Amino acid sequence: MADEFRPLKNAFGKFATGIAIATCVDANGDFRALTINSFTSVSLDPALLLWCLENKTAAYPHFMEADAYALSILGAGQTALSNRFAGRAPEPPAPDEYEIWETGAPLLKSRIAGFDCRIHRRHKAGDHAILIGEVVRFDSNDDGPLVYYASRYYSGLT
Ligand SMILES: Cc1cc2nc3c(=O)[nH]c(=O)nc-3n(C[C@H](O)[C@H](O)[C@H](O)COP(=O)(O)O)c2cc1C
Fold it and tell me: Quick one: which of 145, 123, 113, 137 has its CA closest to 53?
């Protein structure tokens, strides 16, 4: 079946982005993880960021109920991690793959930047929700990014 949104997706996809893994802790205490490219920085003081969560995804209720989330920005060559957490019902990160900072949401050890956030605001917008987070702790390193552009991954920018 033809994808009626393909032309719009093609146009949106002309904005090159990075890739992040969003994680939260669900009501049972289990980790949920989702590949996203809708990350945007919002504010420096206070430190705010946002990303957009599709309302049809299985992870939707968990991220809407959680009071915190973490984002791990992927580095060059980490396409497998991106694909893993973009799949249906992905295995959560294993204990040797993550660390926990302030909120309890897991940060992947494989990252070029990490953000541990408490929910600041949630806004429903069309078929997504905009999740604005207040950054309570972050880090970054000098490794190069995993880039996503026009439905393809690119590495080797630096
Ligand atoms: C490159 C890439 C970027 C994505 N970005 C987002 C995003 O920003 N927000 C979102 O809700 N889902 C995003 N997704 C989709 C999710 O990672 C996941 O594939 C989807 O929600 C799984 O849906 P399901 O649980 O219904 O199978 C992205 C997927 C890929 C491959």
Answer: 123
